[in-house]
Amino acid sequence: MTDIKQAWSALGGDPALLTRVSVTERPGVLPARLPVRELAGACVGACALAAAELGALRAGLAEVPAVRVDDGAVGTAFASERQLLVDGRAPETFAPLSRFWRTADGWVRTHANYPHHRARLLAALGVPEDPDAVAAALAGRSALEVEETVYAAGGLAVALRTPGQWAAHDQAAAVAGRPLVEHGRLDSSPARALAPVGPDPLLPAAGLRVLDLTRVLAGPVATRTLALLGADVLRLDAPGLPELPDQHADTGFGKRSALLDLEREGDVLEELLAAADVVVTGYRPGALDRFGLSPEALAERRPGVVVAQLSAWGAYGPWGDRRGFDSLVQAATGIAAVEGSAGRPGALPAQALDHGTGYLLAAGVLRALTEQAREGGSRSVRVALTRTAGWLLEGAVAPAPQRTGVEEVSGGGDAGGRPAGSRLAERESPLGRLRHALSPVSFAGGPGDWARPPGIWGADPARWC
Protein backbone atom coordinates (compact mmCIF):
# COMPACT_ATOMS: atom_id res chain seq x y z
CA MET A 1 0.00 0.00 0.00
CA THR A 2 1.52 3.32 -1.06
CA ASP A 3 -1.01 5.80 0.30
CA ILE A 4 -0.79 8.91 2.43
CA LYS A 5 -1.94 7.07 5.56
CA GLN A 6 1.20 4.94 5.54
CA ALA A 7 3.46 7.93 4.81
CA TRP A 8 1.83 10.02 7.53
CA SER A 9 2.11 7.16 10.02
CA ALA A 10 5.82 6.78 9.19
CA LEU A 11 6.25 10.45 10.06
CA GLY A 12 4.58 10.02 13.45
CA GLY A 13 1.63 12.23 12.48
CA ASP A 14 -1.75 12.35 14.17
CA PRO A 15 -4.07 10.14 12.06
CA ALA A 16 -7.02 12.43 12.86
CA LEU A 17 -5.42 15.12 10.64
CA LEU A 18 -5.82 12.95 7.54
CA THR A 19 -9.40 14.19 7.26
CA ARG A 20 -7.93 17.57 6.21
CA VAL A 21 -6.58 16.03 2.97
CA SER A 22 -8.49 15.81 -0.30
CA VAL A 23 -7.15 14.24 -3.48
CA THR A 24 -7.87 14.78 -7.15
CA GLU A 25 -6.87 11.58 -8.90
CA ARG A 26 -5.87 11.59 -12.55
CA PRO A 27 -5.28 7.93 -13.49
CA GLY A 28 -3.26 8.70 -16.61
CA VAL A 29 -0.52 10.53 -14.71
CA LEU A 30 2.88 8.83 -14.23
CA PRO A 31 1.87 5.61 -16.01
CA ALA A 32 3.81 2.54 -14.91
CA ARG A 33 3.37 -1.06 -13.86
CA LEU A 34 4.23 -0.07 -10.30
CA PRO A 35 2.00 2.35 -8.31
CA VAL A 36 4.13 5.43 -9.00
CA ARG A 37 1.24 7.89 -9.10
CA GLU A 38 -0.01 6.68 -5.73
CA LEU A 39 3.45 6.88 -4.17
CA ALA A 40 4.01 10.40 -5.54
CA GLY A 41 0.69 11.66 -4.23
CA ALA A 42 1.29 10.08 -0.83
CA CYS A 43 4.71 11.72 -0.43
CA VAL A 44 3.47 15.14 -1.50
CA GLY A 45 0.30 14.86 0.55
CA ALA A 46 2.19 13.94 3.70
CA CYS A 47 4.57 16.84 3.13
CA ALA A 48 1.74 19.31 2.60
CA LEU A 49 -0.06 18.07 5.71
CA ALA A 50 3.12 18.42 7.78
CA ALA A 51 3.50 21.99 6.47
CA ALA A 52 -0.13 22.82 7.24
CA GLU A 53 0.20 21.35 10.75
CA LEU A 54 3.28 23.46 11.54
CA GLY A 55 1.67 26.52 9.96
CA ALA A 56 -1.43 26.15 12.12
CA LEU A 57 0.74 25.88 15.23
CA ARG A 58 2.76 28.99 14.43
CA ALA A 59 -0.21 31.08 13.27
CA GLY A 60 -2.41 30.07 16.19
CA LEU A 61 -5.14 28.68 13.92
CA ALA A 62 -8.07 26.77 15.37
CA GLU A 63 -7.67 23.96 12.84
CA VAL A 64 -5.09 22.72 10.39
CA PRO A 65 -5.62 24.26 6.92
CA ALA A 66 -7.14 22.04 4.26
CA VAL A 67 -4.62 20.20 2.07
CA ARG A 68 -5.22 19.54 -1.61
CA VAL A 69 -3.31 16.94 -3.61
CA ASP A 70 -3.79 17.08 -7.37
CA ASP A 71 -2.20 14.27 -9.35
CA GLY A 72 -1.66 16.60 -12.29
CA ALA A 73 0.42 19.02 -10.25
CA VAL A 74 2.25 16.14 -8.58
CA GLY A 75 3.09 14.46 -11.88
CA THR A 76 4.41 17.71 -13.33
CA ALA A 77 6.59 18.38 -10.29
CA PHE A 78 7.96 14.83 -10.23
CA ALA A 79 9.34 15.54 -13.71
CA SER A 80 10.44 19.09 -12.89
CA GLU A 81 13.87 18.57 -14.45
CA ARG A 82 12.16 17.69 -17.75
CA GLN A 83 9.65 20.54 -17.55
CA LEU A 84 12.42 23.09 -17.13
CA LEU A 85 13.24 25.42 -20.03
CA VAL A 86 16.10 27.93 -19.84
CA ASP A 87 15.58 30.63 -22.46
CA GLY A 88 13.55 28.07 -24.38
CA ARG A 89 16.23 25.38 -24.20
CA ALA A 90 15.41 21.97 -22.73
CA PRO A 91 18.11 20.58 -20.39
CA GLU A 92 20.01 17.36 -20.88
CA THR A 93 18.98 15.05 -18.06
CA PHE A 94 21.41 12.16 -18.64
CA ALA A 95 24.88 12.19 -20.18
CA PRO A 96 25.69 9.74 -23.03
CA LEU A 97 27.51 7.33 -20.71
CA SER A 98 24.66 7.28 -18.16
CA ARG A 99 22.55 4.38 -19.40
CA PHE A 100 22.01 0.62 -19.45
CA TRP A 101 24.60 -1.54 -21.18
CA ARG A 102 24.61 -5.21 -22.13
CA THR A 103 27.10 -7.42 -20.33
CA ALA A 104 28.12 -11.02 -20.90
CA ASP A 105 25.32 -12.23 -18.62
CA GLY A 106 22.80 -9.43 -18.36
CA TRP A 107 22.72 -5.67 -17.97
CA VAL A 108 24.48 -2.97 -15.98
CA ARG A 109 23.41 0.63 -15.33
CA THR A 110 26.08 3.34 -15.19
CA HIS A 111 25.88 6.92 -13.99
CA ALA A 112 28.38 9.38 -15.43
CA ASN A 113 26.68 12.77 -15.45
CA TYR A 114 29.43 14.39 -13.38
CA PRO A 115 32.92 14.66 -14.93
CA HIS A 116 34.67 12.95 -11.99
CA HIS A 117 32.30 9.99 -12.10
CA ARG A 118 32.73 9.71 -15.86
CA ALA A 119 36.53 9.75 -15.51
CA ARG A 120 36.45 6.99 -12.88
CA LEU A 121 34.16 4.83 -14.98
CA LEU A 122 36.46 5.08 -17.99
CA ALA A 123 39.54 4.45 -15.86
CA ALA A 124 37.98 1.32 -14.36
CA LEU A 125 37.17 -0.03 -17.82
CA GLY A 126 40.43 1.13 -19.37
CA VAL A 127 38.75 2.73 -22.38
CA PRO A 128 38.51 6.22 -23.94
CA GLU A 129 35.40 8.39 -23.78
CA ASP A 130 33.64 6.61 -26.60
CA PRO A 131 30.29 4.80 -26.20
CA ASP A 132 31.35 2.05 -28.61
CA ALA A 133 34.51 1.38 -26.61
CA VAL A 134 32.52 1.28 -23.38
CA ALA A 135 29.99 -1.11 -24.90
CA ALA A 136 32.73 -3.44 -26.12
CA ALA A 137 34.46 -3.46 -22.73
CA LEU A 138 31.24 -4.26 -20.89
CA ALA A 139 30.03 -6.92 -23.30
CA GLY A 140 32.83 -9.26 -22.30
CA ARG A 141 32.35 -9.00 -18.53
CA SER A 142 29.72 -10.15 -16.07
CA ALA A 143 27.42 -7.52 -14.60
CA LEU A 144 28.54 -8.21 -11.03
CA GLU A 145 32.20 -7.95 -12.05
CA VAL A 146 31.54 -4.56 -13.62
CA GLU A 147 29.62 -3.44 -10.53
CA GLU A 148 32.50 -4.22 -8.19
CA THR A 149 35.30 -3.07 -10.50
CA VAL A 150 33.75 0.33 -11.15
CA TYR A 151 32.83 0.82 -7.50
CA ALA A 152 36.41 0.03 -6.44
CA ALA A 153 37.58 2.82 -8.79
CA GLY A 154 35.15 5.32 -7.26
CA GLY A 155 32.72 5.15 -10.17
CA LEU A 156 29.07 4.24 -10.40
CA ALA A 157 27.71 1.07 -11.97
CA VAL A 158 25.06 -1.36 -10.73
CA ALA A 159 24.02 -4.75 -12.06
CA LEU A 160 20.39 -5.15 -13.08
CA ARG A 161 18.55 -7.40 -10.62
CA THR A 162 15.05 -8.73 -10.31
CA PRO A 163 13.07 -7.96 -7.14
CA GLY A 164 13.76 -11.51 -5.98
CA GLN A 165 17.49 -11.19 -6.57
CA TRP A 166 17.55 -7.91 -4.67
CA ALA A 167 15.56 -9.41 -1.79
CA ALA A 168 18.32 -12.01 -1.38
CA HIS A 169 21.03 -9.31 -1.20
CA ASP A 170 22.48 -8.41 2.19
CA GLN A 171 21.80 -4.72 1.60
CA ALA A 172 18.13 -5.39 0.97
CA ALA A 173 17.94 -7.29 4.25
CA ALA A 174 19.59 -4.38 6.10
CA VAL A 175 17.11 -1.88 4.68
CA ALA A 176 13.91 -3.95 4.77
CA GLY A 177 13.49 -3.78 8.53
CA ARG A 178 13.89 -0.01 8.70
CA PRO A 179 11.03 2.51 8.84
CA LEU A 180 10.17 4.46 5.71
CA VAL A 181 11.18 7.61 7.61
CA GLU A 182 13.50 7.19 10.58
CA HIS A 183 13.10 9.95 13.16
CA GLY A 184 14.07 10.40 16.76
CA ARG A 185 15.10 12.66 19.59
CA LEU A 186 18.81 13.27 20.20
CA ASP A 187 18.78 15.05 23.57
CA SER A 188 16.62 16.78 26.18
CA SER A 189 17.10 20.38 25.05
CA PRO A 190 14.14 22.65 25.86
CA ALA A 191 11.15 23.19 23.62
CA ARG A 192 11.72 25.48 20.67
CA ALA A 193 10.03 28.88 20.83
CA LEU A 194 8.89 29.56 17.27
CA ALA A 195 7.92 33.11 16.37
CA PRO A 196 4.31 33.59 15.24
CA VAL A 197 3.65 33.82 11.50
CA GLY A 198 0.90 35.56 9.61
CA PRO A 199 -1.88 33.69 7.79
CA ASP A 200 -1.55 35.24 4.29
CA PRO A 201 0.49 33.70 2.92
CA LEU A 202 0.98 31.07 5.57
CA LEU A 203 4.71 30.28 5.64
CA PRO A 204 5.31 27.50 8.19
CA ALA A 205 9.12 27.67 7.94
CA ALA A 206 9.45 31.48 7.95
CA GLY A 207 12.48 32.72 9.86
CA LEU A 208 14.12 29.30 10.07
CA ARG A 209 17.66 28.85 8.78
CA VAL A 210 18.38 25.71 6.79
CA LEU A 211 21.93 24.72 5.91
CA ASP A 212 21.76 22.69 2.71
CA LEU A 213 24.62 20.24 2.14
CA THR A 214 22.96 18.14 -0.55
CA ARG A 215 23.36 17.30 -4.21
CA VAL A 216 21.23 15.62 -6.88
CA LEU A 217 18.27 15.21 -6.55
CA ALA A 218 16.26 14.20 -3.50
CA GLY A 219 18.06 16.47 -1.04
CA PRO A 220 17.71 19.59 -3.20
CA VAL A 221 14.01 18.78 -3.70
CA ALA A 222 13.59 18.69 0.09
CA THR A 223 15.38 21.99 0.67
CA ARG A 224 13.64 23.59 -2.32
CA THR A 225 10.36 22.71 -0.58
CA LEU A 226 11.50 24.21 2.73
CA ALA A 227 12.47 27.37 0.84
CA LEU A 228 8.97 27.54 -0.67
CA LEU A 229 7.59 27.43 2.87
CA GLY A 230 9.61 30.46 3.96
CA ALA A 231 12.93 29.07 5.23
CA ASP A 232 16.21 30.88 4.61
CA VAL A 233 17.98 28.06 2.74
CA LEU A 234 21.71 28.39 2.14
CA ARG A 235 23.21 25.68 -0.04
CA LEU A 236 26.93 25.03 0.33
CA ASP A 237 29.08 23.34 -2.30
CA ALA A 238 32.78 22.60 -2.47
CA PRO A 239 34.59 24.90 -4.92
CA GLY A 240 36.02 21.92 -6.79
CA LEU A 241 32.68 20.12 -7.29
CA PRO A 242 30.53 22.32 -9.52
CA GLU A 243 26.87 21.47 -9.85
CA LEU A 244 25.42 20.73 -13.27
CA PRO A 245 23.96 24.07 -14.45
CA ASP A 246 20.53 22.73 -15.40
CA GLN A 247 20.32 20.75 -12.17
CA HIS A 248 20.97 23.94 -10.23
CA ALA A 249 18.37 25.82 -12.28
CA ASP A 250 15.74 23.20 -11.47
CA THR A 251 16.39 22.78 -7.74
CA GLY A 252 17.75 26.22 -6.79
CA PHE A 253 14.40 28.00 -6.44
CA GLY A 254 14.06 29.95 -3.22
CA LYS A 255 17.65 29.29 -2.11
CA ARG A 256 20.96 31.06 -1.97
CA SER A 257 24.07 29.27 -3.18
CA ALA A 258 27.57 29.67 -1.74
CA LEU A 259 30.93 27.94 -2.04
CA LEU A 260 32.78 26.76 1.04
CA ASP A 261 35.89 24.63 1.45
CA LEU A 262 35.12 22.68 4.62
CA GLU A 263 38.78 21.67 4.93
CA ARG A 264 40.09 25.24 5.01
CA GLU A 265 37.13 27.37 6.10
CA GLY A 266 36.00 25.57 9.21
CA ASP A 267 35.55 28.86 11.05
CA VAL A 268 32.92 29.96 8.53
CA LEU A 269 31.14 26.63 8.89
CA GLU A 270 31.11 27.07 12.68
CA GLU A 271 29.50 30.51 12.33
CA LEU A 272 26.82 29.10 10.06
CA LEU A 273 26.12 26.14 12.33
CA ALA A 274 25.87 28.39 15.39
CA ALA A 275 22.74 29.98 13.91
CA ALA A 276 21.31 27.07 11.89
CA ASP A 277 17.93 25.63 12.84
CA VAL A 278 18.07 22.74 10.37
CA VAL A 279 21.02 20.96 8.75
CA VAL A 280 20.28 18.76 5.72
CA THR A 281 22.98 16.44 4.34
CA GLY A 282 22.88 14.26 1.24
CA TYR A 283 26.41 12.91 0.91
CA ARG A 284 27.43 9.31 1.57
CA PRO A 285 26.72 8.27 5.19
CA GLY A 286 29.66 9.26 7.35
CA ALA A 287 31.36 11.34 4.65
CA LEU A 288 30.85 14.59 6.57
CA ASP A 289 31.36 13.26 10.09
CA ARG A 290 34.97 14.45 10.21
CA PHE A 291 33.66 18.00 9.98
CA GLY A 292 31.49 17.50 13.05
CA LEU A 293 28.33 17.08 10.99
CA SER A 294 27.00 13.83 12.44
CA PRO A 295 23.62 14.18 14.18
CA GLU A 296 25.15 13.61 17.62
CA ALA A 297 27.97 16.12 17.12
CA LEU A 298 25.59 18.74 15.76
CA ALA A 299 23.17 18.31 18.66
CA GLU A 300 26.04 18.73 21.11
CA ARG A 301 27.28 21.99 19.59
CA ARG A 302 23.85 23.34 18.54
CA PRO A 303 21.17 22.04 20.97
CA GLY A 304 17.73 22.17 19.42
CA VAL A 305 18.91 21.57 15.87
CA VAL A 306 17.08 19.33 13.41
CA VAL A 307 19.46 17.10 11.44
CA ALA A 308 18.05 15.55 8.28
CA GLN A 309 20.04 12.96 6.36
CA LEU A 310 19.52 11.38 2.97
CA SER A 311 21.36 8.48 1.36
CA ALA A 312 20.92 6.22 -1.64
CA TRP A 313 21.36 2.78 -0.06
CA GLY A 314 20.77 3.51 3.64
CA ALA A 315 23.24 4.29 6.40
CA TYR A 316 23.82 0.62 7.23
CA GLY A 317 24.59 -2.71 5.61
CA PRO A 318 27.41 -3.60 3.19
CA TRP A 319 26.44 -0.84 0.76
CA GLY A 320 25.92 1.80 3.44
CA ASP A 321 28.99 3.77 2.37
CA ARG A 322 28.35 3.62 -1.38
CA ARG A 323 27.33 6.46 -3.65
CA GLY A 324 24.13 6.09 -5.56
CA PHE A 325 21.46 7.79 -7.65
CA ASP A 326 17.81 7.15 -8.42
CA SER A 327 18.52 5.33 -11.71
CA LEU A 328 21.01 3.01 -10.01
CA VAL A 329 18.62 2.18 -7.19
CA GLN A 330 15.92 1.38 -9.75
CA ALA A 331 18.33 -1.05 -11.43
CA ALA A 332 19.56 -2.73 -8.26
CA THR A 333 16.20 -3.20 -6.51
CA GLY A 334 14.35 -4.76 -9.44
CA ILE A 335 12.25 -1.75 -10.43
CA ALA A 336 13.96 -1.51 -13.84
CA ALA A 337 13.34 -5.22 -14.40
CA VAL A 338 9.63 -4.85 -13.55
CA GLU A 339 9.24 -1.84 -15.81
CA GLY A 340 11.18 -3.41 -18.69
CA SER A 341 9.89 -5.31 -21.71
CA ALA A 342 11.15 -7.57 -24.49
CA GLY A 343 14.14 -8.56 -22.41
CA ARG A 344 15.32 -4.98 -21.93
CA PRO A 345 15.29 -3.04 -18.63
CA GLY A 346 12.94 -0.12 -18.27
CA ALA A 347 12.53 2.86 -15.96
CA LEU A 348 9.91 4.69 -14.00
CA PRO A 349 8.18 7.58 -15.81
CA ALA A 350 10.02 10.03 -13.55
CA GLN A 351 12.84 9.93 -11.04
CA ALA A 352 10.18 9.10 -8.51
CA LEU A 353 12.53 7.71 -5.87
CA ASP A 354 14.42 11.01 -5.78
CA HIS A 355 11.37 13.24 -5.76
CA GLY A 356 9.33 11.08 -3.41
CA THR A 357 12.17 10.72 -0.92
CA GLY A 358 12.79 14.46 -1.11
CA TYR A 359 9.23 15.27 -0.10
CA LEU A 360 9.38 12.69 2.68
CA LEU A 361 12.58 14.30 3.97
CA ALA A 362 11.01 17.76 3.95
CA ALA A 363 7.96 16.35 5.71
CA GLY A 364 10.22 14.78 8.34
CA VAL A 365 11.86 18.14 9.02
CA LEU A 366 8.51 19.90 9.33
CA ARG A 367 7.15 17.27 11.70
CA ALA A 368 10.35 17.43 13.77
CA LEU A 369 9.92 21.20 14.12
CA THR A 370 6.32 20.71 15.26
CA GLU A 371 7.36 18.09 17.83
CA GLN A 372 10.20 20.30 19.04
CA ALA A 373 7.83 23.16 19.68
CA ARG A 374 5.70 20.89 21.83
CA GLU A 375 8.23 18.61 23.51
CA GLY A 376 11.74 19.97 22.90
CA GLY A 377 14.83 18.00 21.98
CA SER A 378 17.24 18.09 19.08
CA ARG A 379 15.86 15.86 16.35
CA SER A 380 17.13 13.55 13.64
CA VAL A 381 15.40 12.50 10.43
CA ARG A 382 16.77 9.91 8.00
CA VAL A 383 15.52 8.60 4.65
CA ALA A 384 16.99 6.45 1.87
CA LEU A 385 16.14 5.99 -1.79
CA THR A 386 16.35 2.23 -1.35
CA ARG A 387 13.74 2.27 1.41
CA THR A 388 11.40 4.31 -0.78
CA ALA A 389 12.01 1.81 -3.58
CA GLY A 390 11.03 -1.00 -1.22
CA TRP A 391 7.82 0.83 -0.36
CA LEU A 392 7.01 1.17 -4.06
CA LEU A 393 7.61 -2.52 -4.68
CA GLU A 394 5.57 -3.46 -1.60
CA GLY A 395 2.70 -1.36 -2.96
CA ALA A 396 2.64 -3.40 -6.14
CA VAL A 397 1.52 -6.52 -4.26
CA ALA A 398 -0.61 -4.97 -1.51
CA PRO A 399 -4.40 -4.66 -1.79
CA ALA A 400 -5.68 -1.25 -2.83
CA PRO A 401 -6.50 0.83 0.26
CA GLN A 402 -9.92 2.22 1.01
CA ARG A 403 -9.61 5.95 0.33
CA THR A 404 -11.74 8.87 1.42
CA GLY A 405 -11.75 12.47 0.25
CA VAL A 406 -10.85 11.35 -3.29
CA GLU A 407 -12.18 12.80 -6.53
CA GLU A 408 -11.30 10.89 -9.69
CA VAL A 409 -10.97 12.95 -12.86
CA SER A 410 -10.69 11.33 -16.26
CA GLY A 411 -9.34 12.98 -19.37
CA GLY A 412 -5.98 13.75 -20.85
CA GLY A 413 -3.76 16.77 -20.85
CA ASP A 414 -3.33 20.04 -22.67
CA ALA A 415 -2.09 20.73 -26.19
CA GLY A 416 1.49 20.49 -24.97
CA GLY A 417 1.05 16.93 -23.76
CA ARG A 418 1.11 17.87 -20.09
CA PRO A 419 -1.35 16.14 -17.75
CA ALA A 420 -4.50 17.97 -16.72
CA GLY A 421 -3.87 19.87 -13.51
CA SER A 422 -0.28 20.69 -14.46
CA ARG A 423 1.14 23.77 -12.77
CA LEU A 424 3.84 25.58 -14.72
CA ALA A 425 5.09 29.15 -14.52
CA GLU A 426 7.59 31.40 -16.25
CA ARG A 427 9.84 34.02 -14.72
CA GLU A 428 13.04 35.92 -15.32
CA SER A 429 16.15 34.94 -13.41
CA PRO A 430 19.91 35.57 -13.42
CA LEU A 431 20.13 32.33 -15.40
CA GLY A 432 17.72 33.48 -18.11
CA ARG A 433 14.00 33.14 -18.59
CA LEU A 434 12.82 29.97 -16.87
CA ARG A 435 9.78 27.83 -17.43
CA HIS A 436 9.44 25.67 -14.38
CA ALA A 437 7.10 23.39 -12.49
CA LEU A 438 5.36 24.92 -9.51
CA SER A 439 5.44 23.05 -6.22
CA PRO A 440 2.67 20.49 -5.73
CA VAL A 441 2.71 21.16 -1.95
CA SER A 442 -0.63 22.92 -1.56
CA PHE A 443 -2.71 23.92 1.47
CA ALA A 444 -5.19 26.70 2.21
CA GLY A 445 -3.38 30.01 2.61
CA GLY A 446 -0.03 28.55 1.58
CA PRO A 447 2.43 29.98 -0.95
CA GLY A 448 1.92 29.48 -4.66
CA ASP A 449 5.48 30.03 -5.86
CA TRP A 450 8.99 30.60 -4.54
CA ALA A 451 9.94 34.04 -3.32
CA ARG A 452 13.02 34.11 -5.53
CA PRO A 453 14.31 32.31 -8.64
CA PRO A 454 17.60 30.44 -8.64
CA GLY A 455 20.67 32.64 -8.87
CA ILE A 456 24.15 32.01 -10.15
CA TRP A 457 25.62 28.85 -8.64
CA GLY A 458 28.04 29.66 -5.81
CA ALA A 459 27.65 33.44 -6.16
CA ASP A 460 26.15 34.22 -2.74
CA PRO A 461 28.19 34.88 0.41
CA ALA A 462 28.44 32.05 2.92
CA ARG A 463 26.44 33.80 5.64
CA TRP A 464 22.86 34.05 6.80
CA CYS A 465 20.55 36.83 5.69
- For the secondary structure, the number of strands is 16
Strand content: 15-25%
As residue ranges, the low-confidence spans are 411-417
Shape: globular
Q: Main sheet, how many strands, which sense, barrel? A: 7 strands, mixed
Q: Give the helix level as a range of percent.
A: 25-40%
> What integer value in Å does the Rg equal?
21 Å
Question: If strands are numbered along the chain, what order do they take across the biggest sheet?
Answer: 7-13-12-11-8-9-10
Termini separation comes to 43 Å
Mean pLDDT: 93
Backbone structural class: alpha/beta
Number of helices: 17
Produce a short descriptive summary.
This protein has 465 residues and is an alpha/beta fold. Helices cover 36% and strands 15% of the residues.
Structure keywords:
465 residues; alpha/beta; seven-stranded mixed beta sheet; 17 helices
